[in-house]
Amino acid sequence: MLEAKLEAETLSRVKTDFLANISHELRTPLNAIIGFSGSLKEKIFGAMANEKQLEYIGDIHRSGEHLLDLINDIIDVSVIESGKLELRIEEVEVVPLIESSLRLIRPRADNGGVKLSVNVGNVHAVRADERRLKQILVNLLANAVKFTLHDGQVSVTCQLENDGGIVFEIADTGIGMSKDEIRKAMEPFGQVESSLARKYEGTGLGLPLTDSLISAHGGTLNIESTPGKGTTVKFRMGPDRVVSLREAS
Q: Is pTM beyond 0.85 here?
């Protein structure tokens, strides 16, 4: 029994080290592909000869970004599975956190004709790993925008609960999911089967990774959705994570 446990731990370390090494080797050429294709797409070196070339350059750029996202997600999942995730806990102000997350998502929302709105209650700060908390918000916002059609809406709400805990809510008017699709989306590499999901390919790790990061903060993730009507995702953290204005001062 002990021997099997030690062998499993060794294999886990080997896998994590391998993924860390291979990710570095993959990131270097990918960053060049993304950088140069982005420059060509923005016509920094002059106009392209025709629109078809510009279209192909855009495809190369998006594919490079998708591959980089996939590599980063795989590494994060591997680190979590190996028990090596280390959180740098600090006081994170909620409003600036949400605003910076929305800034990253806004270009995608604008391109898709999706309206963004935000409503933050009497919340000051939380004790969390700022980078990971932002990763959670960006993942959930990106999903909401991706599966919301033109003229749809995505809203972000943050409120204190009666027990002193905090809840973040991301709601959209998108395509929605059935209970079966929610279950599948929570599995690593699970993909919801829909024409929109196939059109906007994801890594299949976004929600499982997000759930793991929330759990690492002692929080919970809940998804409510209705096909054709939209999805509401809530993640909660306990009172011990909340920093009041009185504490901050």
A: no
